[in-house]
Amino acid sequence: MKQTLKNIWKSLSRTHGSSLAEFATVAALMATLAATAAPKLSEIAENTKAEKTSNEIGKILKQAQTFYNDKADQDGRGRFPGQDKFDKQVGDYSDLDAALAVLGPDTEGASGAATADFINYKNQLGDKWRSVFGKDNAQAPSPVGHKWSDDGYTQCGTCEDNDGDEEWKALFAGNALTSPYQDGHYIYIVIPGAQNEGTVVPPILIVADAENPRDFNNWLEP
Is 221 strand, coil or helix? Predict the structure, then answer.
């Protein structure tokens, strides 16, 4: 596109005594090209942002896997940042299907009406999630009107005193990953693990970008 515009200008500059009509034709052509290119450039920019946030979520999951493995070696049972114990949830979801339901495509309820999707940070579903790096983190602040909160310690007698955002920041040397979106912010939940009759079910971590959690999310099951 840039080369095409340059060629037009070069052609115009080499033409001596161009008429007003010729100039108007070239100007109109350039305006048409610019108008045609604008949507494509916007699409490229959005795709770049989507790819970047996907990569950032991948980095968070990678660090979470390392953390989980280290805890398994140290304590005999792995857990994720924010978990006070491997069988304790982070956020307000204790069931994977319930969590994935709000991240999936539109579905029809019993009434035939489409259920609400978690497609932006203003959705009330956000109050079920926790901030990865802290909702008031100066490096990656939450957008005004967000619903999520920070993870805190839930006393259980044999639990560790863990604040989720502090453990996440420690994994990134005190820094926070920033969403490429103006209204983005990284949030997460952990579905608790369980142990039943000798069978151990590991916890599951889900990380999303609050710009659009339905489209920008990934999960990790060790």
Answer: coil
Total-model pTM: 0.78
| Residue among 91, 53, 80, 72 nearest 171 (CA) | 80
Cα distances from 79 to residues 68, 149, 157, 184, 188, in angstroms, run: 5, 20, 17, 26, 14
Query: 114-169: per-residue pLDDT in tens?
Result: 455 789 999 999 999 999 999 999 999 999 999 999 998 666 766 666 789 999 99
Q: Does residue 178 surpass a pLDDT of 70?
A: yes
φ, ψ for residue 205 (rounded to 5)?
-105, 135
Coil/strand/helix, residue 101: helix
3-class state of residue 93 by DSSP: coil
DSSP string, 158-183: S-----HHHHHHHHTTT-----SSTT
Q: Token pair for residue 156? A: 């259980």
d(CA 169, CA 49): 23
For residue 23, is pLDDT > 80?
Answer: no
pLDDT of residue 103: 85
